[in-house]
Amino acid sequence: MTSGTSPSDSAPRRARAVLPEGWPQPRGYANGMVAEGKVLVTGGLVGWDVQGVFAKGFVAQVGQTLANIKAVVEAGGGKVEDIVRLTWYVTDIEAYRNSLAELGPAYRANLGRHFPAMAVVSVPALVEPEAMVEIEATAVLPG
Q1: Which listed residue, of 5, 44, 94, 137, carries a Cα 20 to 30 Å from 76's Cα?
Q2: For the whole model, what pTM was predicted?
Q3: Exposed e or buried b per residue across 5-33, where buried means at least 16 C-beta atoms within 10 angstroms of its C-beta
Q4: What does each C-alpha distance from 129 to 44, 64, 112 come to in angstroms?
Q5: CB-based contact 55:38 (threshold 8 Å)
Q6: Which residues sit opposite 139 in a β-bridge?
Q7: Helix H segments across 13-99?
Q8: How far does CA 76 lie from the centroid of its chain?
């Protein structure tokens, strides 16, 4: 196995994508990440603001959820480039699939062009009835 490179891999980082030799470069995520340091994990975060008000619509909730993840990582002393994994739980997989073009700008507004290992899982419901998406994150911070 070798680590893949992309234009964003040229800057020194604590976390970097791993791409097995011969595999195609994934778009918008990494197949694997390698990092050293302290591990920060979030709970499942949803698309509400600090007052507990949900953003309206799927893409808006994703944007708010990613902003919440960024806030937690930064409060822990990290930055978005330290995120090595995101697991998305969505209540409507078709809303996810049909919103891919709109999700890109919402994602980049919060996490830039940093694409950690990701998984998207369709679930029948989330604990918060208004939530359409819940995302867990893992970051590896400087030791």
Answers
A1: 5
A2: 0.86
A3: eeeeeeeeebbbbebeeeeeeeeeebebb
A4: 14, 16, 29
A5: no
A6: 40, 83
A7: 58-75, 93-98
A8: 16
